[in-house]
Automatic annotation (TrEMBL):
This is Glycine zipper 2TM domain-containing protein. The keyword Cell membrane does not apply. Keywords: Membrane, Signal. Pfam families: Rick_17kDa_Anti (PF05433). PANTHER family: OUTER MEMBRANE LIPOPROTEIN, PTHR35603. Residues 1-22 form the signal peptide. The lineage of its organism: Bacteria, Pseudomonadati, Pseudomonadota, Gammaproteobacteria, Alteromonadales. It comes from Colwellia psychrerythraea (strain 34H / ATCC BAA-681). It is found in: Membrane. Coiled coil: none annotated.
């Protein structure tokens, strides 16, 4: 199960890593290679879950074991103290490990089917997935422009 999740996350990251770079910074000019105008045939909001691993979980577990061992060392005497120290370290490490579990982040995307305006040629349709922007919600029959940026990314915006 974990290998399937890891494989799907790797593929998702590979295919959608350029989407996050499609946005450009404020007050920055970006070269444009081509602009196509078209109409939205369909728009669908989709979401993708991404697993975020805690990179510090090993250190947190070690710290929890260290603190638990120090607390366990305060109890008993002789071999009882040794057992209390080991138990404290195990319990402290386990508690720290449970608190530093991986988190799931939901990424919101929009999938657009666009038919490009055609003049004396066959109309083409494009499927584009990009980051969801609540300020730019797409609907059926919206007039849009498909902007091809010089870095290889594509961005869909409404025509105004």
């Amino acid at each position: 199960m974990k290998s399937l999740l890891l494989t799907s996350l790797t593929l998702f990251t590979f295919f959608f890593s350029n989407l996050a770079n499609a946005d450009y910074d404020r007050n920055k000019a970006v070269p444009v290679e081509q602009v196509l105008f078209g109409t939205v045939i369909s728009a669908r909001n989709v979401s993708q879950e991404e697993l975020i691993q805690d990179k510090n979980s090993g250190w947190k577990t070690f710290g929890g074991a260290l603190i638990g061992g120090a607390i366990g060392n305060q109890f008993g005497g002789g071999s009882g103290r040794d057992i209390a120290t080991v138990l404290g370290a195990v319990i402290g490490g386990k508690m720290a490990n449970n608190r530093s579990q991986d988190k799931t982040v939901v990424i919101h995307l929009v999938e657009l089917m666009i038919e490009v305006d055609c003049a004396e040629q066959q109309c083409q349709q494009y499927m584009v997935i990009q980051d969801y922007d609540s300020q730019m919600v797409f609907h059926h029959q919206d007039a849009v422009r498909m902007v091809y940026l010089a870095n290889g990314n594509v961005r869909i915006d409404k025509q105004f």
